[in-house]
Write a structure and sequence with these properties.
single chain, 30% strand, six-stranded antiparallel β-sheet, four-stranded antiparallel β-sheet, disordered C terminus, Jelly Rolls, alpha+beta, 4 helices
Length: 215
């Protein structure tokens, strides 16, 4: 992956976007295409980078699409989107995803739908970097600008407090709890069980999780 770049704003078409001929969508969005490494890329709060694949400006407010890379053990705080539904498709690595009070394992190729107003978060539980595509519908300029503002912070000023403060200032999301590493710390090894729905009770012990109640 190319080094993080701020050469183009995600709220305007990237220089590497290739317009295609075709009719507009109902949102006024014209067809376009990006090569695999194209799109504005910035450092993100989970030890990796976020690349904007489609923005509010490009989609006339229809959707925001990002490709995210996360370092091992990392993930965002528990949060809520009040005005957007979210879709996550995992590409590389292994995630666990919290949806309300449930946890699921997400192997490469997993699809997760998160309706608006659903408290959610995720964590990279693999040994290497993990990668996913996330889509917000409709688009969120505030969500896009959140990542730009966070990336502009000096490294010493980044962290959970900065995440929560910027999220509130930008109106990007509502932070409602800590990351999974704090609320549901892993104990022992993780045994892959694709598509397994994790619920409170014996299944927690079987999967060798230690469960604590999130604030």
């Amino acid at each position: 992956m190319s080094a993080p770049s701020r050469a183009a704003s995600p709220t305007s078409p990237d220089a590497t976007t290739t317009p295609l001929r075709g009719a507009m969508s109902q949102h006024g969005m014209r067809p376009f295409a990006l090569a695999p490494a194209d799109g504005t890329t910035v450092e993100n709060p989970t030890g990796g980078v976020t690349t904007f694949k489609a923005t509010s400006d490009q989609s006339s407010g229809g959707l925001t699409v990002i490709e995210g890379v996360s370092a091992p053990g990392e993930g965002p705080p528990l949060h809520v989107h009040r005005e957007q539904d979210e879709f996550i498709y995992t590409l590389d690595g292994t995630f666990r995803v919290r949806l309300g009070d449930d946890l699921i394992e997400a192997l490469p190729g997993s699809f997760v739908f998160i309706p608006r107003n659903t408290p959610h978060t995720w964590q990279n539980i693999g040994d290497g970097s993990a990668r996913f595509i996330a889509t917000l519908s409709p688009a969120s300029v505030e969500f896009e600008e959140f990542f730009l503002r966070y990336a502009d912070l000096p490294p010493a000023e980044r962290g959970p407090e900065a995440f929560g403060r910027l999220a509130a200032e930008m109106g990007a999301m509502e932070v409602s709890g800590p990351p999974l590493a704090q609320s549901h710390p892993l104990i022992g090894s993780w045994r892959s069980r694709a598509g397994r729905r994790v619920v409170p009770g014996a299944s927690w012990r079987a999967l060798r999780f230690h469960r604590t109640r999130a604030p």
